[in-house]
């Protein structure tokens, strides 16, 4: 495998978890709910996916269980943020703290154990295309699903009646309510779907990317996903581009390690995606002033107040 194929393939692999989490955040924020609990849902999904795969040896069940846990945690956030009108930023951060602490406590006995490992699934014929084939079509099936999720998210938000309702809830929940849209139900549905994607992203980390369980397995990728959503203007396709960009930066360190090239110090490459996250958030805050963010983002809504 030449360097080009290796780097492209590794970029796709390293960007997948961030991509799924970012698509989940796009859904919830387009409906008007900020969810800063991505990191907590990600690690709980990783733990659940690893444990379920370790016990059942069934990858589908492992991903489904991880997604279900992510959805339940997102609904917990929704209970406080949507039903009770609590501060969404504080509720999301509390969810991250809960997920990190709970996963560290429950996962102690699983550290070092050999669990299920989900391998690659080359696409016949396409995988044999020189250069492009091994890089793009010899991936894990979850990578292909990540692209399909992006396509489905874009299609749902822009081409369906439900997508119109979601955008209305994010932009002007009072107007959406007047149109007959159940704002709370729509927001909770988007939160649950986004939580499912984030939980599944966690399972990808513990079953595919670095098979096994360890504390802090997500490495801050949940926060990166939140930054990507802002960077992408709350749109699915730019979120895919952002995830690939961060995946490329992360892949560089593995590439340089594998090829023994030391053009850039490794510690710089390791912190680069995180530095860019901070820069992106700062830039968006400085230049955005609301920008393309949904007008009703972060604002609780109760019908009796309309």
From TrEMBL:
The chain crosses the membrane at residues 60-82, 89-107, 141-157, 188-210, 216-234, 268-287. Keywords: Cell membrane, Membrane, Transmembrane, Transmembrane helix. It is found in: Cell membrane. GO terms for molecular function: transmembrane transporter activity. InterPro entries: ABC_transp_permease (IPR001851). Pfam families: BPD_transp_2. One of its GO terms (cellular component) is plasma membrane. It comes from the Bacteria. It is a multi-pass membrane protein. This is ABC transporter permease.
């Amino acid at each position: 495998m030449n360097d080009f194929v290796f780097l492209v393939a590794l970029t796709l692999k390293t960007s997948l978890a961030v991509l799924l989490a970012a698509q989940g955040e796009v859904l919830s924020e387009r409906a008007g709910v900020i969810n800063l609990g991505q990191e907590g849902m990600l690690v709980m999904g990783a733990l659940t996916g690893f444990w379920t795969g370790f016990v059942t040896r069934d990858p589908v069940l492992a991903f489904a269980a991880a997604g279900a846990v992510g959805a339940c945690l997102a609904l917990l956030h929704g209970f406080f943020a949507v039903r009770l009108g609590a501060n969404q930023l504080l509720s999301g951060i509390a969810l991250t703290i809960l997920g990190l602490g709970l996963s560290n406590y429950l996962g102690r006995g699983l550290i070092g154990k050999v669990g299920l490992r989900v391998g690659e699934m080359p696409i016949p014929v396409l995988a044999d295309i020189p250069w492009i084939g091994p890089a793009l079509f010899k991936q894990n099936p979850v990578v292909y699903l990540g692209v399909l999720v992006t396509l489905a998210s874009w299609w749902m938000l822009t081409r369906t009646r439900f997508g119109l309702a979601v955008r209305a809830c994010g932009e002007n929940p009072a107007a959406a309510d007047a149109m007959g849209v159940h704002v709370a139900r729509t927001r909770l549905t988007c939160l649950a779907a986004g939580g499912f994607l984030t939980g599944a992203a966690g399972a990808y980390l513990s079953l595919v990317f670095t098979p096994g369980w360890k504390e802090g397995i997500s490495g801050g990728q949940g926060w990166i996903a939140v930054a990507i959503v802002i960077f992408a203007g709350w749109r699915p396709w730019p979120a895919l581009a952002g995830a690939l960009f961060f995946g490329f930066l992360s892949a560089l360190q593995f590439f340089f390690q594998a090829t023994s090239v030391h053009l850039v110090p490794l510690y710089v490459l390791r912190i680069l995606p995180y530095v860019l996250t901070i820069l992106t958030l700062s830039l968006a805050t400085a230049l955005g002033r609301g920008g393309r963010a949904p007008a009703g983002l972060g604002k609780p809504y109760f019908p009796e107040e309309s």
